[in-house]
Write a structure and sequence with these properties.
Largest sheet: 6 strands, parallel
InterPro entries: CbbY-like, HAD-like_sf, HAD-SF_hydro_IA, HAD_2, HAD_sf, PGP-like_dom2
GO molecular function: phosphatase activity
CATH class of the largest domain: Alpha Beta
Pfam families: HAD_2 (PF13419)
CATH topology of the largest domain: Rossmann fold
Strand order of the largest sheet: 5-4-1-6-7-8
Oligomer: single chain
Strand content: 5-15%
Shape: globular
Number of strands: 8
Distance between the termini: 8 Å
Low-confidence stretches: none
Protein name: HAD superfamily hydrolase
Mean pLDDT: 95
Number of helices: 10
Length: 244
């Protein structure tokens, strides 16, 4: 197997505990859209996570239109994409925290100098950068190595589309088998796997042992080579992939 030279990190609930905060804001915007159309259904942040985890807001709105049978103009969609981004960033800048144990691992990786490190996210680049800055992780990731499916691509998309990983590989000048992606969701893992990248799964951000075990099974079934429940396991997971 070629030597692993780059680590590609998902951001939301992999580096930064952001999903609960983001989905609170997202639910407010989604409910406004439904209310405007006299659709009685209302979402909580938790319900949105269950339905749409791993998708960015644009992807969620496409799914929402299909689920409730309505259409949004491109202009209206772009308005709400920006509105949701603003509301999420405000919450993240106030409350975001790093995932448990990740700072120690990022410190060790940076000190070793062995791997290039990049962020590959479905979320808008402005949101990703706000998250990383709030929790003190911006120092680990050069601005040009933060890739967003919502912002970086000529045509915005969302994981599980592999486009953002393929774009990151091209920009980094790397082959897929030289990289490992760290992902916490089905859509994120599928995106990396479809791009041919090795995947380490992470389930430490899920609440409750039952849910974590369910996600371990799901990520393993999708093709993650190893799954960790805490960031302290990362060195062993990395070694296991490199030696496989």
């Amino acid at each position: 197997m070629p030597e692993i030279t780059h680590l590609l990190f998902d951001c939301d609930n992999t580096l930064v505990m952001s999903e609960d905060l983001a989905f609170e804001a997202c639910a407010d915007v989604a409910n406004e859209i439904l209310s405007k159309r006299n659709i009685s259904h209302r979402y909580t942040g938790e319900q949105l996570i269950q339905d749409f985890v791993g998708q960015n807001f644009r992807g969620m709105m496409i799914s929402l239109q299909a689920k409730f049978g309505f259409e949004m103009s491109q202009e209206e969609l772009e308005h709400y994409v920006k509105e949701e981004e603003n509301q999420v960033i405000a919450k993240l800048e106030a409350k975001a925290e790093p995932c448990d144990g990740v700072m120690e691992e990022l410190d060790a990786l940076q000190e070793s100098g062995k791997y290039g490190m990049a962020v590959v996210s479905s979320s808008a680049q402005r949101r990703v950068k706000a998250s990383l800055k709030k929790v003190g992780q911006a120092q680990y990731f050069p601005p040009d190595d933060i890739f967003s499916a919502a912002t970086s691509l000529p045509k915005p998309t969302s994981k599980p589309d592999p486009a953002i990983y393929l774009f990151a590989l091209e920009r980094l000048g790397k082959n897929a088998d030289e990289c490992i992606a760290i992902e916490d969701s089905k859509s994120g893992a599928l995106s990396a796997i479809r791009a041919g990248i090795h995947v380490v799964g992470y389930v430490g951000s899920y609440h409750g042992e039952e849910k974590r075990q369910e996600m371990i099974q799901l990520l393993t079934d999708l093709g993650a080579e190893v799954v960790m429940t805490h960031w302290s396991e990362f060195p062993d997971c990395l070694k296991e992939v490199e030696e496989s």
